[in-house]
Design brief:
The protein is of the alpha/beta class. It contains six helices and five strands, in the order βαβαβαβαβαα.
Length: 147
């Protein structure tokens, strides 16, 4: 069975999401498109919470979100326990987000990347493993709640 990867966007990320859904399928993943399903104005937190909740509950190991800047989606997604949603506007940032931060949600700034760049960013994020080591210690500190 192929890995299920939920993917969601607001209206600003709709077009790029459509391309990434096809790309995920072509790469052998099972994309789960949680919406939006048109370019009509919508609220990004609705989709961020749908994807982040699945990751937080362990139903899936990772997901993808898109909005205009990526910031709104990351704010909403990172409110979920265990979620590390990283905004990546380049393939290098996506690689580092995986290697050093074990990012389990990729957030793309749809208004600032081309479709081809978006595909390259997605591929880099999907294929880069978490490095562990000293980075695991830092991830543990992220997961520790402060008083």
């Amino acid at each position: 069975m192929s890995e299920i990867i939920p993917i969601g966007s607001d209206h600003a990320g709709f077009e790029l999401k459509q391309r990434l859904v096809k790309e995920l399928a072509a790469l052998g993943f099972e994309p789960q498109d949680v919406g939006t399903h048109s370019a009509e104005s919508t609220d990004y937190p609705d989709y961020a919470h749908l994807v982040a909740d699945q990751v937080s509950r362990g139903q899936v190991t990772r997901g993808v979100l898109l909005c205009g800047t990526g910031l709104g989606m990351s704010y909403a997604a990172n409110r979920h326990h265990g979620v590390r949603a990283a905004v990546a506007g380049t393939a290098e940032i996506a690689r580092l987000a995986r290697e050093h931060n074990d990012a389990n949600i990729l957030v793309l700034p749809a208004r600032f990347v081309t479709e081809d760049q978006g595909v390259d960013i997605l591929k880099a994020w999907l294929t880069t493993p978490f490095e562990g080591g000293r980075h695991a210690r830092r991830i543990a500190k992220i997961e520790t709640e402060s008083d």
